[in-house]
Amino acid sequence: MNSRKKIFNDPVYGFVSVPYGLLLDLIDHPYFQRLRRIRQLGLTPYVYPGALHTRFHHALGALHLMQEAIETLRFKGADISDAEAEAVCAAILLHDVGHGPFSHALEHALLDMHHEELSALFMEALNQQFEGQLSLAIDIFTNRHPKKFLHQLVSGQLDMDRMDYLNRDSFFTGVSEGVIGYDRIIKMLAVHEGELVVEEKGIYSIEKFLIARRLMYWQVYLHKTGMAAEQMLIHTLQRARELALAGVELEAPRHLAWFLKNDNNSPAEPSESLFHFALLDDNDVTAAVKYWAEAEDFTLAFLSRGLLDRKLFRLEWRNAPVTPDELDAFRRRVASDYGAQAVAEHFVYTGRESNRAYDDAEDQIKILFKNGDVRPITECSDVPLYTQIVTKHFICYPKQLGG
C-alpha cells in the first residue's frame, strides 16, 4: 500500500489513517460521499438524541478496525499479500454503500432489494469505473476468494462491521452496555487452516461481545419508540407510492419521485435504478415528508405531520401474535375516530422481530487452544445461552386509539 496517508479524526478511535491510492479514491467517490448524508441509526435520534452519526463514520471506523486486524494476523504469520490487504479494506469500506435513506425504511417501502444486494451492484459499477481494481475486493465480499478468513473479517460472526457499529452506536447513543473490548478481541484473532479463530484467552471477551450485541438490539435497534417511528415512515412512503401510482401529483425531490412512480424497480434495468438510488439520501426523504405534511390526502398528511412533530404512534410488544379480531377492532376505531378519509391499514399495523446474539447455524466462532485443538465456542463457554431466538410480536397504532 502507498506509504503516504490521509488522516481522519474519528471520535471513537482517534486518528484513522487511509493510504493514498485506491482506498482514498473510493472515499472521494460520490457513491461513498453519499453516506455522509445517511444517518447510521435512521430515526433512533427520536429516542437517543445524540445518535446523529452517519454511515460514513461507520465505514471509516470499520476500515480502521480492518487495518488493525490485518496487522495482527500478519504478525502471527497469516499469509496476506499487499493486494489482498487493500482488497479486504476496500470490501469493508464499501460494505454499506448500498444503504438507503433512514436505514431499512426505504428497503421495506419502495425497493425489492436488500442493501447487501445494492452494495454488490454499487461495487460492480465502481469496478467498471476503476477498470477492474475492485475485482479482488468483490471476490472477498461475495466469499469467492479461497482464503475464507478474509470474507469472515468482512461478513461473519466477528466481522469488523459488527465490532465497529456496537462501539460506535454505544458511544453516540450513550448506551454503555454496547461497549466491547474491540482492541483485545482483534489482538486475540488468528488464522487456523484458512479460517478465522480466536485464541482461548479471548473467550471472555467474546462472551462480552455477544452479551453487548443482545442488549444493544433490544435497547437501541429494536427500541419500541424507534420502531414506531420507522413503521410510520414505512407507511408514509407506502401511502405516497399508492397515491403516485394512482396518478396523484405529489411534491417530492426528483430521485425519490422516480421510485414512487415506478411500480417495478427490481434490477431488471439496474443502471437506471442505481442512478437514482445513488442520489438519494436522508435529505430527500425529510424534504418529501415536509411537503406531504400539507398534502390533501388525510392519511399521508397525518403520518407526515406526526413524524415531523414527533407525535409518534404507540408500539406494544407482545409475546404472541396479535389476533385478527383485535386488529379488526383497532382498525374499526380508526374509521370511528378519524372518519372514512383515514386508510386504516396505514394507521394500525402488526409485525414481529426476532433476534439472537449468536447464530451457531452460521459461520461459527471457533476457539484455538494452546494444544492446537479448535472447538466451537458453544462447546467451551456459556454461549449456548445466547443462541436462543427471542421473538416478539408488536402492534402499532395512534396513541389516541389506546385511550
What's a concise summary of this model?
Helices cover 48% and strands 12% of the residues. The protein is α+β, with helices and mostly antiparallel strands and 403 residues long.
Protein architecture, described:
The chain is α+β, with helices and mostly antiparallel strands and 403 residues long. It folds into two domains: 5-94 and 134-222, Hypothetical protein af1432; 224-353 and 395-402, Growth Hormone, Chain: A. The chain has helices at residues 22-28, 30-33, 55-75, 82-93, 105-109, 115-129, 135-141, 148-154, 160-173, 182-187, 203-221, 224-245, 254-261, 270-277, 282-292, 298-308, 324-338, and strands at 5-10, 14-19, 189-192, 195-199, 314-318, 349-355, 366-368, 374-376, 390-397. It has a four-stranded mixed sheet. The protein has a three-stranded antiparallel sheet with strand order 5-9-6. The protein is globular, with a radius of gyration of 23 Å. It starts with a strand and ends in a 6-residue tail after the last strand. 42% of the residues are buried. The mean pLDDT is 93.
